[in-house]
Each structure stands twice: as C-alpha cells, then as structure tokens.
Amino acid sequence: MSTDANTSGSDWQPGHSFTPPKEFAAQANASDPEIYGRAAEDPEVFWAGYASRLDWMEPWNQILEWNPPHAKWFVGGKLNVSTNCLDRHLATNGDRRAIVWEGEPGDQRTLTYRELSALVNQFANVLKQQGVGKGDRVSIYMPMVPEAAIAMLACTRLGALHSVVFGGFSVESLAERTNDCGAKVIITADGYWRRGNIVPLKSVVDEALPSCPSVKRAIVLRRAGDKCPVKMEPGRDLWWHDLIVGQSTDCAAEPMDAEDPLFILYTSGSTGKPKGILHTTGGYLTGAYTTTQLVFDIKPTDLYWCTADIGWITGHSYVVYGPLANCATVFMYEGSPDWSTQGEPCRDRFWDMIERHKITILYTAPTLIRACMKWGDEHPAKHDLSSLRLLGSVGEPINPEAWLWYHRHIGRERCPIVDTWWQTETGSIMITSLPGLTTTHPGSATRPFPGISVDVVDDMGRSLPPDHKGILVITKPWPSMLRTIWGDDHRYQQVYWSRFPGLYFPGDGALRDMEGNYWLLGRVDDIMLVAGHNLSTMELESVLVEHPAVAEAAVIGRSHEVKGQAPVAFVIVREEYAPPSSDGEARKRLAAELKEFVSQRLGAVCRPDEVIISGDLPKTRSGKIMRRLLRDIAEGRVLGDTSTLADPNIVAGIKSKYGSDDD
Ligand code: WT7
Known about the structure:
- The protein is an alpha/beta fold.
- It is built from 20 helices and 34 strands.
- The strands form 10 sheets. An 8-stranded mixed beta sheet has the order 14-13-10-8-9-16-17-27, sandwiched between helices.
- The termini are far apart.
- 5'-O-[(S)-butoxy(hydroxy)phosphoryl]adenosine binds at residues 267, 312-314, 394-397, 419-424, 445, 506-508, 520, 523.
- The site of 5'-O-[(S)-butoxy(hydroxy)phosphoryl]adenosine (WT7) has 20 residues, from α11, β22 and β29.
C-alpha cells in the first residue's frame, strides 16, 4: 500500500511506502524511470555518458578493461580532479558560492568558486615548493574548515595522493597510517573547536612524527590561535599563512591518467591492520559526480549540507569531490551538534543553522538522527525548516522509527528521503532511491543505483530468491570501485574477491523483497559492536597471538545487556606455557594476564569479558575457524550445524571448559 509523502505518516505501518512528492518529481534531475533499464542494458555506455560530461585533457580509448579482480576505467584518458571541481566552473559560475562555512563559535566564511580556486592554486604552489609532486603522498590531519578541502584539492592539482586521517584519531592511528603510505608532508592545524573546548591537533602530530621518518614537513594552519599555543620544530614545521604569502594563484594542473591513484583512505574493516583503500582518478570522479547529481538532485540554487567529516569517505565524495564537480554550494560546519554559537550546550544547533543559512539538502547519519530523537521533538519544532527539500541517510541501516522521525520532524512530511548504502571501498553510493523516482520504504535503501549490479547470495554464492536473508554481492565492476589496498594487493584479493570468486564481497547481509527493494542487515563478518565501538575480532586476535603464551586465538562478540556485545576470547596456549588442566589457579592467572594484555594494547573497551583456554578450535576443513559455533557456545545455545567441522570432538572439549574462567 502506498501513501503519498504529502499525507501524514503518523499512521505508518510496516509495508507502507512513500511515493515522491509530485512537485519534487516534476523538477528532479533523475525524472525518467527508463534510466534503470538503459543503464542495465549497457552499464559501460551509461557510465561513459556521465564521464564525458567531465573535462578531459585527453579522451579515453576504452571504457573498461576488466581482468578480475582488477578494473581499469576510461583507459588512456587524462584529466585532473581539481580542474573539474574548480577551473571549469569559473567562466560561467566564478561568483557562485562554493563553500559556506560556520565555525562552532559562530564565525562564518564564504568562498566563491573563484576565491576557492585561487586558494587551491596558491596552496598547490606551496606544496610544490616543499617538494611535493605527482605520486607523492601527503597526510591531512585537519578539522572541518575550508582549508581541509583546499589541501585535498591542492594535492589533486599536483597529482599527489592525500591520505586524510580523521582529526579524532589518536597518535598511534595517525602514525600507523602516515607510515603505511610513506607520506612526505603532513598538513594539520593548531587545533579546533568542539563542545566549547579546543581540541589540539598539532600536539598529536608532534607526538606522532618522531616515529614517521618519511615526513619531512608539517604545514600548520592557524585555526584556534591564542587559545592553542603550539611548538614549531625549526626545519620541520611551517605555518600555512607564512607559506601562502606571495604565492601565484596559478598552478598548472597535472594531467593525470584516468587510472593514476587519486587518494588513499584507511578503513579498519574486519581485519587487524587498517586497510589503505586506493581510489583512482577518472572512475572515482565519475562515480562521485554522477551520484551527487542524481541522488542529491543538486541545483545551482541549493545549499547542500553533508554533515560527515572529511576524514571519512562520505566527506571525500559528498562534501568535496561530488558536490564541487557539480558546481554545488556546500555548507560546512566545524563543531558539535549539541553546542550553540553562544558557547553553551544546546540541542538544536543543526536546525538553527538550517534555518539561518536556508540549507536545502541535508545528508546525515542514523546515529545523529537517533540522538536527536532522544533529545526530543521540541528542538527541531522551534525552527523554520521550510528551506529543506531533500534528506539523506548513510552509515548504517536506518531503523523505520528513525526514518519516520526524520520524515516527520525534519522533512515535515514534504521531503523525500534517500537512504544510501555504500562503503569506503565502493567510492560512491551503490544502493539508494532516486528522490524523484523511487517509492521509498522506511528501513530499505531500495534499489541499486543505475549501472550498478548487485545480488543476494547464499553461503555458496548462489543467487537467492526474493525474501531470503543472504549475503550482498556486487556482480559487475563499477567506475569508483577501489583498485587495490595500498601496498597489499594480495589482501585486496583475499578480503573482497576470495569469498565468491568473480563477485565483490562487501561484507553485509541483505534481503531483496518481492518488489526488488534491498534491505541491508548489517555486517556478516566479524565486527563486534561493544558499547558503541566497532571492534574487529581480528584486531583482538592479532594482539592475543602477540603474547608469547598464545598460539592461536579466536574472538567473538557475546550478547551483553549493557554493552550490546562483549568480546570473548578462545585461545590455544603454546605447549611450553600451558598450565596443566588440573591447575585451575594457573589457568585463571593466565586468563587474567591475557585480558590485561589486550586492554593494555588496545584500550579498556577491548578487554575480553572472558578468556577460555582451549586445546583446539573448531575449524572447517579449509582451516577457517567457525566463529558461529564459538558464539553458540558462549551464548549457551544448542550448537548449529557441525557437519563441516574437521573434528567435531573439539567442540565438546571446548564446551566442557567453557565457564571455568570465572575471575
Ligand atoms: C559499511 C561501510 C559509506 C560511508 C559511510 C560508511 C554500513 C553504510 C549504510 C546504509 C545500511 C550501511 C555497511 C557498509 N552502511 N551505509 N545506508 N544502510 N548499512 O563507510 O566505514 O566504509 O562502512 O557501513 O555495513 O558495509 P564505511
């Protein structure tokens, strides 16, 4: 049953849906339902059609070269990302606003395309002067200020790869990521405002750099000023504002091959060490450009706000590259949603900014929506949100309750909602509604974007009929797909292409209903959600095996009333360290030591609730640990199917030991 989005959603029942409002459909960038059929008929031609709307310095001679699992798109073509985001808009739209920014204390800046272009060119000249050139890596550890986008665009102008590290990450995370990519230069700021305080960034960089030998220069933006004194290391650290003085506003853009690397972005995913996801130039920009245009329905009159930090892929594709390639006006905010311009706690900063700036498109995450629901309906109700015309969601499945709250209290039952499924690895949106075309169902991301082919399969990779829960796969290459993991192509093949040869494995569960809508069901692999933290079981396992006593470890997440999930570790102890099974005290001591070991290494949130010392672990014949069975044991369930176990007796052995560790 369908109800029009103009009618009240208050009587919503599961199964109800919302058709696009007529006025929206009438003006939408994607208004022809045939787009799906045309794209499906020949996805390569579909993508090439959008790619050709970008500025190319040299045309490609082949749309796709596919040697699974390695793709090359727009082979032989040359282009530059910064000219596509800036130069090509200047003749007709130089005075259009590119970035409208608000700091947490309420300070504001606006940069037109012409101004942004001048700053990017100047900063590219700065980087060049510091020895940065094509193929070099640059770490960016910045707050949400326009200079973050300027730094990214300046790298792309020179053909240098940026690796943006989220400003909330620690010294160790910054050092690990900076070393993995071998960055020559790091760009940072003194600090930034968050919930009324200054968060220092430069001091984190100072702590990280002694263990980052590749970094020769740190360029420091002054944001916090007097509030955040910094120590400048002579010969290494330079102020942004000193370097920029007198720089030319012209810097020749490096002609990049379509397949030249554009950036690296680290994602923790399901395995231990963060993965440096590598995106390339032509395909990535085509994906970001096309999806921004069709999913967010960008128009010259819009003020578009994606609330993501530039440290995440959402910030790359939908704060910087996609919108600027479309000549959109982007809103950017530095601070926290619960802090006012007056420097006090509040619950309505977002709604206040939407009203004051007349923001028209809002793209945010379910966790923010749920926080706002908890804070109460009265906060958005105080504000005129009539400028809004489109809402988006990303990051995790949005529960129908949050979807409906967003629809009623923010969209005021006028605005279509696009629930967009994608990943760091996919580069751009993969499953989503098109706001003028698609009937939406709260909780479903609806359909694959035109030109994207997905399926839901069983454990063996066989396509499942509708209404069956299974594993999501992507069946054809797409332009903005990751090309590899930086420095580890083997891992790229293992993680994404080995589960089902020939199919891309994103690691999410999904169900396709009778109408062809996709419902995402969360991660199928080994991520635990402990007190709101995404922990990978592999991360804990790799630390446990670093302990001299541990030969092998398997970690699972056990349901926990308060934390959601809590880690439980099953370990095989090396013979020479193994306490005799009769020595209960010695086993307890070792278990306690291992908990402490994990806690020391990874932080208290990772401390296992329980460590079970076991003689062996249940494995399949191909040697994969069957965590599903360990979970069954830990949660006291009847064991599932054990028929694929190499040695079914092992499970009985572990079961008898389970619970013996009660410290
Ligand atoms: C994982 C990717 C894509 C940018 C933000 C996260 C989950 C993301 C949705 C959605 C259900 C979603 C998936 C995916 N996810 N969007 N609309 N519905 N799940 O990027 O850190 O690479 O995480 O986020 O599990 O695999 P990421």
